[in-house]
TrEMBL record:
PROSITE patterns: DEHYDRATASE_SER_THR (PS00165). Pfam families: PALP. The keyword Flavoprotein does not apply. This is Pyridoxal-phosphate dependent enzyme. Keywords: Lyase, Pyridoxal phosphate. Transmembrane segments: none annotated.
Length: 425
C-alpha cells in the first residue's frame, strides 16, 4: 500500500508501482485484463457512467457513478465469474461449476454455467438475501444454504468441488476472476478521460485489485481507494498489517473495528473495538468477508492507495441519495458513495464511485424508499430496529434535497461528454 494522501498533499502516486508491476502474480496483469475484456465482449454490458451532479457542489469536483448495478445479474460479479468459467478446462467445466457466495457471485456463476450449458451448485450462507437466492435458482443453479457465514460456505463448496472433480469458481481470490473485474478499470479509462480517483467497495478484494491492476498499468496517477463497513473491516485491517507475499505465510487478520477515517485520509492507528459495533452485522451483505484473499491482498498492498471504512448510517444515506436520483443500489454497491458522503477529501479531481450491485433486499429497499420520500437521512442503523422517522437527521455532506439541487433533475443523472451513445438500453 502506498502512503495515504492527506488534504495538504497532492494525490499520491504509489512509489512502488514500477517494481510492484514487475512482481504481479502470474495471470493478473494488464494483458490478462485486456484478454478478459475480449472474452467478455458481447457477454457483459459496458455499463454507463453518469454524473452525480448534486455532489459536485458539495465536493468541489466532478463525481461520476459507474452503473454496475445495471450489469446483467445486477452486479459486476458476472465479469469475473464468466471469465473464469470461460477459461476453464472444458472437461472440468462439464462436470459442473461450484461456488460459494452471499449472492452476487452466485448469480454470476449461475449465469455463466447456464451460458455454457453445464450444471451449477452454489453454497450460500444461511440467511442470505432471499432475492439473490431466488434469482440464482431462477438462473438454473442448485442452491445449498450453509450455516456459518461466507467462510463456511466456501469450505463446503471446496469440498463438494473436489469430491466430484468439478470447477470451483472462487468469488475473489483467483487470477481469472480478478482479471474479469479489472475490465471495469479499462472501461473507466475510456469513459472518464480525465479520471483521477476511483472508489470501490471491498469484500475479498477482487474488484479493488482488478481495477487497480488495470489503472496502475495504464494510468498510474489515478488513485484507487477501497471502502469497507466499519462492522466488516477485514481487508482494511489486513492492509495495515506487516507485509506478506502471495507465497508467504497466510496473513493473520484480526477482526477489528476500524473507525471512520478523518477527511484527511491519514492512516489511523487501530483502536479498540467500539462497544456499539460489537456483534453487529453490516447491512452491506455483499462485503461481509472476514478473510481477504491472499492474492487480492498482495495486489492491493502494491497498487492501492488506501482502504477506508464507513459507518452503517453512511450506507443508508448513500442509498437514499441514489434513490432520489432514480438509482436502485444495494448497500455494498452504495459503499463508494457512502465514503464520499462521509469523507469528501477522498475525491481528488474527476472521481468515479463504482456502484457495484443493485440486488437489494426487499425489506431494505422498502426502508430506502420510505427514507427517500422524506427530506432527511438516517442518523443510526435502521437494521437495528430502533429507527423511526422522528429519529432522522441530516447527513454530513448530503444536501437536504439532493435531487432538487441537481441541475439534471429530469434524468437524475447525466452522461459525461461523448458518452451519450453508451447508455444502457
Ligand atoms: C455489490 C458488491 N460490491 C462489492 C463487493 C466486493 O467484491 P470483492 O469481494 O471482489 O471485494 C461485492 C462482493 O460480493 C458485492 O456483491
Amino acid at each position: 500500500m502506498t502512503a495515504p494522501a492527506t488534504d495538504d498533499e497532492p494525490a499520491s502516486t504509489p512509489t512502488s508501482t514500477a517494481s510492484a508491476r514487475r512482481d504481479l502474480p502470474a495471470g493478473v496483469s494488464l494483458p490478462a485484463i485486456e484478454s478478459a475484456a475480449r472474452v467478455l465482449s458481447g457477454v457483459v454490458r459496458r455499463t454507463r457512467v453518469v454524473r452525480a451532479g448534486g455532489l459536485d457542489a458539495g465536493l468541489g469536483m466532478p463525481v461520476w457513478l459507474k452503473c454496475e448495478h445495471e450489469q446483467h445479474t445486477g452486479s459486476f460479479k458476472l465479469r469475473g465469474a464468466y471469465h473464469r468459467v470461460a477459461c476453464a478446462d472444458p472437461d472440468e467445466r462439464a462436470r459442473g461449476v461450484v461456488a460459494a457466495s452471499a449472492g452476487n457471485h452466485a448469480q454470476g456463476v449461475a449465469y455463466a454455467a447456464a451460458a455454457f450449458g453445464v450444471p451449477a451448485t452454489i453454497f450460500v450462507p444461511a440467511g442470505a438475501n432471499p432475492v439473490k437466492i431466488a434469482r440464482t435458482r431462477g438462473l438454473g443453479a442448485r442452491v445449498e444454504q450453509v450455516p456459518g457465514g461466507v467462510e463456511a460456505a466456501l469450505a463446503a463448496a471446496a469440498e463438494f468441488a473436489a469430491a466430484g472433480g468439478r470447477l470451483l469458481v472462487h468469488p475473489f481470490d483467483d487470477p481469472a476472476v480478478i482479471a474479469g473485474q479489472g475490465t471495469i478499470g479499462l472501461e473507466l479509462l475510456d469513459q472518464v478521460p480525465d479520471l483521477r480517483t476511483v472508489v470501490v467497495g471491498v469484500g475479498g478484494g477482487g474488484l479493488l485489485s482488478g481495477i487497480a491492476v488495470a489503472l496502475r498499468a495504464r494510468r498510474p496517477e489515478v488513485r484507487v481507494i477501497g471502502v469497507q463497513s466499519v462492522l466488516s473491516p477485514a481487508f482494511a485491517a489486513a492492509l495495515r498489517q506487516p507485509t506478506s507475499t502471495v507465497d508467504g505465510p497466510a496473513v493473520d487478520v484480526p477482526v477489528l473495528d476500524v473507525p471512520v477515517l478523518g477527511r484527511s485520509c491519514r492512516r489511523p492507528t487501530l483502536p479498540r473495538s467500539p462497544a456499539s459495533a460489537m456483534g453487529r452485522r453490516t447491512i452491506a451483505d455483499g462485503m461481509a468477508v472476514r478473510e481477504p484473499g491472499r492474492l487480492t491482498l498482495a495486489l492491493a498492498r502494491s497498487l492501492v492507495d488506501d482502504v477506508v471504512t464507513v459507518d452503517e448510517a453512511a450506507f443508508w444515506s448513500a442509498m437514499v441519495w441514489l434513490r432520489r436520483s432514480g438509482l436502485v443500489v444495494e448497500p455494498a454497491g452504495a459503499a463508494p458513495l457512502a465514503a464520499l458522503l462521509r469523507h469528501g477529501g477522498l475525491a481528488r479531481g474527476s472521481t468515479v464511485a463504482v456502484l457495484s450491485g443493485g440486488n437489494i433486499d426487499p425489506a431494505v429497499d422498502a426502508r430506502v424508499r420510505a427514507l427517500a420520500g422524506s427530506a432527511q437521512v438516517p442518523s443510526a442503523d435502521p437494521v437495528e430496529g430502533d429507527l423511526v422517522p422522528g429519529d432522522l437527521v441530516s447527513g454530513d455532506l448530503v444536501p437536504s434535497d439532493p435531487v432538487s439541487s441537481d441541475p439534471v433533475r429530469t434524468t437524475g443523472v447525466a452522461s459525461p461528454p461523448g458518452m451519450a451513445g453508451s447508455r444502457c438500453p
